Amino acid sequence: MFGKSSKINEFRLWGLLFTLFGMGLMILGTAGIVFWGQAGKVFAAIFMVIGMIAMLASVGIYFWAGMLSTSAIILNCPECGRHTKMLGKTDRCMYCKTKLTLDPAQATDLDDEDKEEIEEVKRTQPQS
């Protein structure tokens, strides 16, 4: 993906990019009719179809992001205090971009007590 953003916002960004790309292609295709007259109709038809496919892809991406959003874990960001949604084991806050995790083994800023608990869990788990 692009970088420092939450996963849901990344999906929404891809949906927006496909929407803009599809609309741009359809506008470019319509410009073919204006500048090339009769010969531009084929150009316009091709670009309209490709633009529609891009628009349908954006609808699919937005639908997928919406479905992921309904099953996401909602938590309070420790940095900004706002409600944010988290997908997977690690994600970023939707507002302040702070790294979030529910897995203590992946957390970087731990107290001594938390580190001891992690070591104890590692010792009790069978080695594979």
Please give a quick description of this structure:
The protein is mainly alpha-helical. It has 3 helices and 4 strands.
What does this structure look like?
Helix 1 runs antiparallel to helix 2. The protein starts with 6 loop residues before the first helix and ends with a helix. It folds into two domains: 65 residues; 55 residues, no CATH class. The strands form two sheets. Strands 1-2 form a two-stranded antiparallel ribbon. The protein is mainly α. The protein is 58% helix and 11% strand. It comes from Paenibacillus montanisoli. InterPro entries: UPF0295. Keywords: Cell membrane, Membrane, Transmembrane, Transmembrane helix. This is Zinc-ribbon containing domain-containing protein.
Write the layout of secondary structure elements.
Elements (H helix, E strand, L loop, with lengths): L6 H30 L3 H31 L2 E4 L6 E4 L3 E3 L6 E3 L10 H13 L4
Antiparallel strand pairs: 1-2, 3-4
